[in-house]
Give the backbone structure.
Amino acid sequence: MTDSMAVYRRVVDHFTELVDSIAADRWDAPTPCEGWTVRDLIEHILVRDRRLAATVGDSDSAPSGGDLAAQWHERVDWWAQGLADPERSAVVWSTPLGELSFAQAAAAMTTGELTIHTWDLARALGVDEQLDPEAVQLTFESMQRHAAALRGPGVFGPELPHDAGGSEQERLLAFTGRQV
């Protein structure tokens, strides 16, 4: 059985390593997300994270300034503090995915998003694009269950053709409309 919290932490750590590696001249680099730069991608992640955090008790999630890497670290720290507190971590909230504890919401609502966008960021930065295999598996299974909702405007484009014998990561990326 997969430990979803361990996978969540690995995905957050990997994404954070990439954010920390963004050189000043790479913030305007294009990403695989049509029309988005690295800056746009990180801003998207921050906005989405603040919205998710608001569903599990974050009443002060306004951005702190223009340094996107620092803002990302603030978000990571906010979640880590909540996860480290056994009482707060166990509180159940009404979320877009139903009734979830703080810990369940962190894993369920963040792992997939960051898994996909870790690949986008790695591709934009020209670094190793290999994703955590357990994160890929969890993300792909979850996204297949919610395929209809994910095809709406502003989410994912159509699934791209892929090699039937390709890796699970390649199939996940094709499912999300990414050209590998």
